[in-house]
Amino acid sequence: MDDLLTAQQAADLLHLHVKRVQGLARAGKLPAVRHGRKWLFPRGRLLDALRARAIDPTADAPARPAAGVSISARNQLRGTVSGVLADGIMAEVHIRIADQELVAIITRDSAERLGLRPGVEVLAVIKSTEVMVARAVGE
Q1: What is the C-alpha separation between 59 and 37, in angstroms, rounded?
Q2: What pTM, to 2 d.p., does this model score?
């Protein structure tokens, strides 16, 4: 009999958020069985589907940001990843925007899930309660 995994174990195996795994199971896109209120996933069938590329862990992260991204944040900057420095559980992502560079600190898991590497186009979304504006003196 195949080992059955919990939703969290399946999420860890697939490098997805547990809610995404549950949603894929509900939609019939992942091999799973319902036991009471919990989803259980046969490890062997998950691995087979993953090997056959029937499951793409990065499917929810488009390789190229769509022009019609709908999000409440107004400050959105399109750029290209120029470097990723991963250390421990965090990653420092350098994004080239025109002639400037933006540095974002995100979780290593998110950087891996999004497939961030130099050359990948991304959308930097800035949501903050405070933005400072500076100007050189005398201009």
Answers
A1: 26
A2: 0.48
